[in-house]
Amino acid sequence: MSFPPPTTLDTSNRSRILNLGAGPSSLPTSVLLQSAQDLLDYKGTGIGLCELSHRSGTFKQILDSAESDLRSLLSIPEDYAVLFTQGGGTEQFSATALNLLAYDAARHGRAPGTLDYAVTGSWSSKAIKEGERMGGRVKAVTDSKKRDGKFGRIAPIEEWELSPASECAMLYYCDNETVDGVEFPSPGLPIHQLPDDYRKNVPIVADCSSNILSRPIDVAAHSLIFFGAQKNVGPPGVTILIARKSLLARHPDESIPFGGPRIPTTLVYKNLADNSSLYNTPPMFSIHVSGLVFRHLIEQGGVKGAEQRSSEKAQLVYSTIDESKGFYEGTTSATSRSRMNVTFRIKGGDDGLEGKFVEFCKERGIEQVKGHRSVGGIRASLYNAISVDDAKRLVEAMREFCGQHSG
Ligand SMILES: Cc1ncc(COP(=O)(O)O)c(C=O)c1O
């Protein structure tokens, strides 16, 4: 089979379409064009990016520069490692539990402690189930669904039922719940409100898969931050970890005599760190494109710039919901509204009308606004590659649709 060689890359349909998908989602066109060139011939070497050796100096430069740009974007302190791995956020549900159980048992020389989870949406709900499957003793310190019958409001920390600090192996939370449109209000989980002994002794782990790089995060207050790339960062395939180096000091096998878990080799954080993310072949293309996205974001004013644009975009859409006199109804409480994934219902959850809205958007080139299959409704994702003008385009469609169907 032979393919005719394309002479140019056609981007015209990209400007017509506004992709508001929840992930994988939009990436900057300039980044994709550069990636396409690099896939074919990386910097005039005559070798495509995915044809290079992952142990070559050329790929090492790609890895180093992605790391260094991410460090500068998030002000990552020196005593934190940046690790590139695979398996997505879902694999981290297992890896976080296993590594933190082992760390806790080896550090204290006793059986692993409890895994505390803040269950604020569908993803943290999956994480706690996986923690339990991995053999952990788990505790939901808060569970919005048990309390309210649905995910939509994050309870204040003073209502959380935390395990005693001396018996606790980690506190896990999801900063932005992509399915349910629930996010910890800025600046993020108020870690300073945790009791002193808990804050100082319990490793805090954050899933930032769907809001990383949209606002600053206090890295030094966490032991581990992880995120899959396919929303604000890059293509699917790479998962990035920011890990406190003290967490990587001991091999988890040291915990086995105390009842710690046996961890598959590629999930052992220490192995990733000791081999500079090259224990085995890394997802080279995804890492490279993520690096280009980091560069692009630096040129666009860094995380501060993204934060400003995110607030503006979210404000535009939420105010359209609030001003619609109940035609549109947000699914989350005002204090827990996600800036990344705006979820709402139409006329109290009229499936037929919601279907019409999805079609109405499609006719205007606005794609992927159908809510997650598990919750229904509408979801518009406003990740970093979505501009303020794009959000205005959505708002215009929402107003027009409301004008036609309210009353
Ligand atoms: C917040 C969050 N965590 C975890 C995941 C799971 O990611 P993956 O599909 O890469 O395993 C997702 C996926 O959308 C997510 O949004």
TrEMBL record:
UniProt keywords (A-Z) are: Amino-acid biosynthesis, Aminotransferase, Pyridoxal phosphate, Serine biosynthesis, Transferase
MF term (GO), any: O-phospho-L-serine:2-oxoglutarate aminotransferase activity
Q: Does the keyword Transmembrane helix apply?
A: no
- Enzyme Commission designation: 2.6.1.52
Gene3D superfamilies assigned: Aspartate Aminotransferase, domain 1, Type I PLP-dependent aspartate aminotransferase-like (Major domain)
Reactions performed catalytically: O-phospho-L-serine + 2-oxoglutarate = 3-phosphooxypyruvate + L-glutamate; 4-(phosphooxy)-L-threonine + 2-oxoglutarate = (R)-3-hydroxy-2-oxo-4-phosphooxybutanoate + L-glutamate
Task: Please report the name of this protein according to its UniProt entry.
Answer: phosphoserine transaminase
Q: In which pathway does it act?
A: Amino-acid biosynthesis; L-serine biosynthesis; L-serine from 3-phospho-D-glycerate: step 2/3
Gene Ontology BP terms: L-serine biosynthetic process
Cellular component aspect of the GO annotation: cytoplasm
Please indicate which superkingdom the organism of origin belongs to: Eukaryota
Q: Which InterPro entries match?
A: Aminotrans_V_dom (IPR000192), Pser_aminoTfrase (IPR022278), PyrdxlP-dep_Trfase (IPR015424), PyrdxlP-dep_Trfase_major (IPR015421), PyrdxlP-dep_Trfase_small (IPR015422)
The keyword Transferase appears for this protein = yes
What's the source species for this entry?
A: Jaminaea rosea
